[in-house]
């Protein structure tokens, strides 16, 4: 499981955090100095036994 903030302005990820062997229900990225950028929340999750992670992104916010 990983989460972070994607900056459209900088075409890069910030505040990324990764968890392994975890079954929590709420996850937060680290801080990201992107207040002046257009951003979206991004995350990925790979279930045990699955070869690839599923990915999702939140709405673009400016």
Structure notes:
There is one protein chain. This protein has no helices and 4 strands. It has 62 residues and is mainly β. The protein has a 4-stranded antiparallel beta sheet with strand order 2-1-3-4, with no helix packed on it. It is elongated, with a radius of gyration of 12 Å.
**Shape from CA axes?**
elongated
Radius of gyration: 12 Å
First-last Cα distance: 26 Å
The level of helicity is: under 10%
Can you give me a brief rundown of this structure?
The protein has 62 residues and is mostly beta strands. The chain is built from no helices and 4 strands.
What topology does this entry show?
Elements: E1 2-7, E2 12-18, E3 39-45, E4 54-57
Antiparallel strand pairs: 1-2, 1-3, 3-4
Main attributes of the structure:
4 strands, 62 residues, mainly beta
